[in-house]
Protein 1
Amino acid sequence: GDSVTQMEGPVTLSEEAFLTINCTYTATGYPSLFWYVQYPGEGLQLLLKATKADDKGSNKGFEATYRKETTSFHLEKGSVQVSDSAVYFCALKRALGGTSYGKLTFGQGTILTVHP
Amino acid sequence: EAGVTQFPSHSVIEKGQTVTLRCDPISGHDNLYWYRRVMGKEIKFLLHFVKESKQDESGMPNNRFLAERTGGTYSTLKVQPAELEDSGVYFCASSHPGTSTDTQYFGPGTRLTVL
C-alpha cells in the first residue's frame, strides 16, 4: 500500500540556519504530494503541494520539489525563524481514479525547534 | 469564512465509557474526512464522507467506532466502548468537491484520553 517516510526528529536549529526535512514515498501511479504544518496549539495547515513530477511547491520561504525518480519530496528553507517551530508532516494523495483517492497518507511528522 | 471546527477540544474518559466527537466542516464542503494520530505516530485515515454517504471507511479500526453525517453537514464519531488504545488526537478535515488535488482543510483536533 501507499506509505510516506519522513526523517526522524526532533530537529533543532539556530535562527537563520538552513533546513532540510527528508520525505520519501511509496505509491502506485502519480500521487499528489503535500507538506502540512502544525503550530503549537493549532490544527494542521497546508504549507505547500505539488501535483506532478518536477513541480515545485513553495510558500512562506519553504520549498519542495516532486522528484519521481527518487520518490522524494524534501522540504527546504534557506533561513529558518523561531516562528517556524512546529511539527511538519509530509503526505500523499493517490491520483483520481483509485477507490481511496480522497484520503491522505501521512508520514510520522518531524518536530522542528528553532532557537534564537 | 469559518474554518473546520471540532468539539470538544479535549476529552478524558474511562475505559468502557462512550465518547462522541463532533466535526463541523467548512460550509459547502461535501467531502469530510476523519483521521487519528496515536502516540506521536503518523496521522492515519479513518473514513471519508461525500455529503451523507460513506465513500471510504477502510481506515475504521473496528466496530466500536461509528461515524455519521446526517444531512451532509456536521459529522459525529462515536467510540463505544472506549479502550486504552483509542487515546490520541482525532482530526477532521473537509474539502470542496472537484479534482483529485482538492485541498483538505483541517480542524484543530480533539485530544482523547482513555484511562
Protein 2
Amino acid sequence: AQKITQTQPGMFVQEKEAVTLDCTYDTSDPSYGLFWYKQPSSGEMIFLIYQGSYDQQNATEGRYSLNFQKARKSANLVISASQLGDSAMYFCAMRGRNTGGFKTIFGAGTRLFVKA
Amino acid sequence: NAGVTQTPKFQVLKTGQSMTLQCAQDMNHEYMSWYRQDPGMGLRLIHYSVGAGITDQGEVPNGYNVSRSTTEDFPLRLLSAAPSQTSVYFCASISRIGEFEMNTEAFFGQGTRLTVV
C-alpha cells in the first residue's frame, strides 16, 4: 500500500526566509512520481512541483525546490525567500505506476504561516 | 480555459436527502477522480474512472455512486446524505499520458463545500 506522511500540521516562517516542509512516503512501486500542491484560503488546488523516482536531479521551479532523498523515502519541499502569499496549506502527493498511475494519494497537509 | 468545472460550489442538505455533484472537464482527459477533503486527513479518493463506462472504488466509496457516460462528465451522487459526508469535494482529471509518464499533474475543480445537517 502507498502512504504519504506529513508530520508538521503547522509551520511558521518569517517573510524572506526559507522554509522546509517535510514529506515521507511509502511505496513498493519501483516507479513513482511525487507532487506538491498548494491550497490557499480560497480553496483551489495549485500544482507546484514534480519529482520522478528515477530523476537524477532534484526538481526546481522558481522559488520551489524538492529535496528528494530516495533511500530515505523523503521528498521535502523547500520554499526560498518566503512571501506573505505563500501562506497556505501544502499537500505532498504520490502516484505509483504499478498501483494505478493515475491514482494520486495525498498526505494530511501542512499549513504554512508567513509572518511579516 | 475552463479546465475542470464543478457545480455547485456550496450546498446544504438535510440528512437523508440525495443530490448529485457535477464535474465536467474540457481537456479530453481519460482519467477522472473524486476526492473528499477533511481537516487533518488530506484528500481521500472516493471513486475514479479510467474512461467512459469504466469506474471503480477508491478508499472511501460508501454512500457515493458515480457513472461516466461521456469522457467529459463524471457526476458524484450522494444516495442518502449523512452528517459524516459534510466535507469539501474535489473532482480531478489527468491526461492518460500521465499514467506511465507520471509527470503530468492532476487538474482540480474549484471544490464543492457540502454541509449535511
